[in-house]
Protein: Gnk2-homologous domain-containing protein
Organism: Aegilops tauschii subsp. strangulata
Amino acid sequence: MKFLPSVHLPCHPWMAMVILPLLLLLVPLAAAQWSSCSKSDDYKSNSTYVANLSLLSSTLPKKAASSTTLFATSIMGNFPDIVYALTLCRGDSNASACESRVTTAFQDLLRLCPYKKNAAVYYDPCMLKFSNKNFLATTTVNDPLFIVNTKNFTTNADITQRLLFTLINSMAQLAANSLRRFTTSRLDVGSSPTLYCLMQCMPDLIPHDCESCFQDILNSTLEYLGGKQGGRVLGTRCYMRYEMYPFFQGDPKLRIINLAPHVPTINNTTTPATVYPQSQPPDAAPPPEGKVTVQEHNGM
Ligand SMILES: *[C@@H]1O[C@H](CO)[C@@H](O)[C@H](O)[C@H]1NC(C)=O
Ligand SMILES: *[C@@H]1O[C@H](CO)[C@@H](O)[C@H](O)[C@H]1NC(C)=O
Ligand SMILES: *[C@@H]1O[C@H](CO)[C@@H](O)[C@H](O)[C@H]1NC(C)=O
Ligand SMILES: *[C@@H]1O[C@H](CO)[C@@H](O)[C@H](O)[C@H]1NC(C)=O
Ligand SMILES: *[C@@H]1O[C@H](CO)[C@@H](O)[C@H](O)[C@H]1NC(C)=O
Ligand SMILES: *[C@@H]1O[C@H](CO)[C@@H](O)[C@H](O)[C@H]1NC(C)=O
Ligand SMILES: *[C@@H]1O[C@H](CO)[C@@H](O)[C@H](O)[C@H]1NC(C)=O
């Protein structure tokens, strides 16, 4: 498991000085991105692997955008140059945004993980992973990245663990049983901080596997994100983000109004982890309070 800061890629300071003002003119919002590249398994610039990857990059964005769940997987080529790929746009995204984001994601990944056969990149609106190994059939959260807000809750540790447990536990079933394996929530309980949360599985997971993927996320959230005012667990098969401000499109689908009475003991993962702080401040101005209309849940 890895923890990454939400900072952008290192780049020469003078380049930043020259390029940044141009970028600001072109794109209104700089997109946060996190990537993970294999350390070994390199391909050559003239290899069949590249040729197959390039074929994928020209077909996968359209395939995702034309699916009702904005999700696509693909397998290209033959061993040893076979490429497996998977992409998902967030449940509150739309087809046109999805196609252009996934197209950009391919370009970014070739730059972020040059000559690496295994690479993944996560943005807020979408994720993309490709590999020479078949990860498409896995059902676990699968080598997640943890993006951790450095700010701590001011409430005590017991309450914050209950807040996080309640969020994930309340949303898992609803998300797992929805068509897009996606849901959002707002948690409002007494004097505790209001929290917003988004959870999504890859739509090809059956509800049972999706729920167990969320169980992995629950365990690692309690272990690694406890006490933090915001965070993301970004996995190949499911992911989760929570913040103290709304960060998704549309009203929360679930309103959570009671805290779970206690948090069951969880088995911590044995993988050691390094924590990188999140240096990114919350979105410039928190949007207005999300209205809550759809469903109530009492967090038990
Ligand atoms: C690919 O490039 C390598 C050097 O980068 C070269 O040795 C090899 O002959 C090239 N292969 C083809 C098929 O062009
Ligand atoms: C993979 O790339 C090679 C080299 O360009 C090509 O011959 C082959 O047809 C590609 N595989 C598929 C499934 O398109
Ligand atoms: C799709 O989403 C993008 C980004 O959120 C937005 O700018 C655009 O208006 C949306 N398009 C449609 C057709 O809803
Ligand atoms: C948050 O809590 C952690 C662990 O309790 C501590 O190491 C860290 O300094 C705290 N961060 C801030 C910004 O207070
Ligand atoms: C699990 O990890 C958390 C956070 O590091 C720690 O507070 C807790 O005591 C651990 N639980 C067990 C059973 O080791
Ligand atoms: C999460 O914790 C539960 C309860 O201890 C345990 O049954 C489950 O195996 C754990 N999952 C992982 C992936 O560690
Ligand atoms: C927690 O881990 C221990 C040791 O690996 C194992 O014996 C126990 O069954 C696990 N508990 C749960 C609830 O998974």
